[in-house]
Amino acid sequence: MLEILKVLNEHGAPVLQQSKRPPSVYLDTCALRGIAQHYDRCERFVRAIREKDGTLVLNALSLGELANQDHAYAVAIAEMIDRVMPRIYFQEARQFVVDKAEKEFKPGDFSNGLPDADKVLLPLVAALTPPFGGPFSMTVAYRSLPVANRLVQLGAKVRELGVRVLTEIERQHREHGNSKEALQYFNPRPNRVQPIFATRALYRALVRRYFADPNRKQDPNDGLDFMHALVPSAYCTFVVLDCGWSNLVKEATNLIRNALIKAPIARPFGSSEAELNAFLDALAVFEPVVQRTSNGA
């Protein structure tokens, strides 16, 4: 949820803060397109986010890819984002940035937000006018405002990082192979510094599952898909990903639960028509977990 702290800063843009209310939903680019372009699915999604007062989670990767979409696709996605505003949250896509923030996070201290909060996108998007309501087409804003190039450049940098992520994962695989020792090396372990976060355990489990099949064909986009999957799965209620990666998240979650790690992990869905409809069914009936007090109330 975006909220205005000050009407204007020294540059004439509103000062925003953000919070993430459950159910929080991350849709990768294919899922954004699959929901936004289908009238019934789009209506169900927007209605559920509004009625549940939930959150659509976006990051530099999804916004950068949105800027490079076919115009018709981009307009449909931007219009859907318009309709759920201000119920959006900008998430950091880079695992190493989140990992550093987790180490510095003090439980109960939310003055600097959660470790997954993006510190770059929020002020950039605040420069778009108006920041709330509609019509608020991010696509049109990208193409008509100076901030457009900065957002697209940021998305490009994240995509470059996706290539480096895949290169590093492949290096680790070559170093450790598929031996028993390698599988042991990539076993998920509890985060002893911050056990409430599953990011580190998910990283290990996803890498392990990614290389579990020796016949798996490498795809240049796997680094991007890895980034779409990792931080959102550690911090959201639901994630909707490429079907292959949603299955990897399910398998990684099983490894993590078998390791008795209880940190929350998102419920994953694929981007096929049947999976999109199943996700929307789950979103429609979502109820937040009510924490009981010590007296049982």
Describe this entry's structure for a reader:
Helix 2 packs parallel to helix 13 (273-284) and helix 8 (147-176) crosses helix 11 (222-235). The strands form 2 sheets. Strands 5-4-3-6-7 form a 5-stranded parallel β-sheet, sandwiched between helices. A two-stranded antiparallel sheet has the order 1-2. The chain is α/β, with parallel strands linked by helices and 297 residues long. Residues 291-297 have low confidence and may be disordered. It is built from 13 helices and 7 strands. It has one domain (2-284).
Q: Structural class per helix/strand content?
A: alpha/beta
Radius of gyration: 19 Å
Strand order of the largest sheet: 5-4-3-6-7
Count the DSSP helices: 13
- Mean pLDDT across all amino acids: 81
Low-pLDDT residue spans: 291-297
What oligomeric state do the depicted chains represent? single chain
Shape type:
globular
Distance between the ends: 28 Å
